[in-house]
Automatic annotation (TrEMBL):
Organism name: Streptomyces lincolnensis
UniProt entry keywords in alphabetical sequence: DNA-binding, Phosphoprotein, Transcription, Transcription regulation
PANTHER family: TRANSCRIPTIONAL REGULATORY PROTEIN NARL-RELATED, TWO-COMPONENT RESPONSE REGULATOR
Xref: InterPro entries: CheY-like_superfamily (IPR011006), NreC/VraR/RcsB-like_REC (IPR058245), Sig_transdc_resp-reg_C-effctor (IPR016032), Sig_transdc_resp-reg_receiver (IPR001789), Tscrpt_reg_LuxR_C (IPR000792), WalR-like (IPR039420)
GO molecular function, one term: DNA binding
Identification of the protein by name: Two-component system response regulator
GO biological process: phosphorelay signal transduction system; regulation of DNA-templated transcription
Length: 222
């Protein structure tokens, strides 16, 4: 299946470079380019892209607010957002994850890594590397989110599901969760899917936010 990609960045050269890279992959195509966050939202609705590669800092409407609008639109429930940042210590990344982004990527990443990231997020996984994600969450996530990211809380989870959620919040993928708990990867994946359903979260990225905001995982427990 071809992954339909929408590129949102206010720098034309950056967009064009990303477009050439994406088009070079046999399993991807660029369905639109946006120079502002508002254009990104409009094009997401018009093109029904599978994934938006979203710059955080853009004029008119920044990438965080654009991500929030996309995530809140029921008609765009299947659209995933991969945010771009200049530095992996950018506190705005946390706001982007809260808003509904499925992961983040540093702009100077290698071309092959960008394509792999697009495939990962488009497949419904979150792009959350343990190191930067844990540091960011622990440093910047304070107080309640502007809008709830889930309709349920960890109290509705079984003990095993709470263990899985705790590991997911540390950035572990399904295979790593399975190894840590002595489960099969398929069982770990099933647990994650059930947790997402119970908490009403959009994806794994929001599970990280839920775990921290509920106090299940706290700074210093990495």
């Amino acid at each position: 299946m071809t992954i339909r990609v929408l590129l949102a960045d206010d720098q034309t050269l950056v967009r064009e470079a990303f477009a050439m890279l994406v088009e070079s992959a046999r399993d991807m195509e660029v369905v639109g380019q946006a120079a502002t966050g508002r254009e990104a939202v409009e094009l997401a609705r018009a093109t029904r892209a599978d994934l938006v590669v979203m710059d955080i800092r853009m004029p008119d409407l920044d990438g965080i607010e654009a991500t929030r609008l996309i995530a809140a639109d029921e008609d765009l429930a299947d659209v995933r957002v991969l945010v771009l940042t200049t530095y992996d210590t950018d506190e705005n990344i946390v706001d982007a994850l809260r808003a509904g982004a499925s992961g983040f990527l540093v702009k100077d990443t290698r071309p092959a890594e960008l394509l792999d990231a697009i495939r990962t997020v488009a497949a419904g996984e979150a792009l959350l590397s343990p190191g930067p994600t844990a540091r960011l969450i622990a440093r910047f996530l304070r107080g309640p989110a502007a809008t709830p990211v889930a309709v349920g809380g960890p109290e509705c989870l079984s003990e095993r599901e709470r263990e899985v959620l705790s590991l997911v919040a540390r950035g572990l993928n399904n295979t790593e969760v399975a190894q840590a708990l002595g489960l099969s990867p398929l069982t770990a994946k099933t647990h994650v899917s059930r947790i997402i359903g119970k908490l009403g979260a959009r994806d794994r990225a929001q599970l990280v936010i839920v775990a921290y905001e509920s106090g299940m995982v706290t700074p210093g427990t990495m």
